[in-house]
Amino acid sequence: MSENEQNAASQEQQGPQFSVQRVYIKDSSFESPNAPEIFMSPWQPEVGLEMNTQTNQLGDNAFEVVLTLTVTVKNEDKTAFLVELQQAGIFAIAGLGEAEMHHTLGAFCPSILFPYAREAIDSMVTKASFPALMLAPVNFDALYAQQMAQQQAGEEAQH
Fold first, then answer.
1. pLDDT tens digits, residue range 10-23?
2. Other CB atoms closer than 10 Å to residue 13's CB: what's the count?
3. For a Cys-Cys bond, which of 26, 35, 40, 151 suits 86, CB 3.0-4.6 Å?
């Protein structure tokens, strides 16, 4: 038995493996295009949130997942601030089937990254002298299921 076959056999015996190797901010930006005038208006913010994830395979069992959040806050039809953050993580994942791997990278890993991203965004917002912005928790499993249903409906429409 070759070394690769032994490694594969030992992974199958051990079952699925998952570990977080590193969590980090890959990119961030904060803009307040209407400061200081925006501070003179009564604070009644409208919060917009856009999310996206991207996965990069780094090695056999190493994956980088990047959760991108764009938060736009408007007050009286003027942009109070815009925050863009790429919260990333490196995950070691082995012993999963294709569907399990896709779900892990598309829902489980982003749910691990989100609290870090939420804290980083809140920190930038408060340092810019705006009231704290605690983004509501996100159900990544539900978003993943919705995305898979849309993808399946799109494929059926093409046939």
1. 545 678 999 999 99
2. 8
3. 26
CATH number of 16-158: 3.10.420.10
User: Contact 89/123 with Cβ under 8 angstroms?
Assistant: no
Phi-psi region of 95 (alpha: psi -120 to 50; beta: other; left: phi over 0): left
Question: Which residues are within 8 A (CB) of 149 and not within 5 positions of it... i.e. 6 or more apart?
Answer: none
User: Is residue 98 a contact partner of residue 35, using CB atoms and an 8 Å limit?
Assistant: no
Amino acid in the structure at residue 108: F
List the domain boundaries for the chain: 16-158
The structure's pTM equals 0.84
Cα–Cα distance for residue pair 16/8, rounded to 1 Å: 12
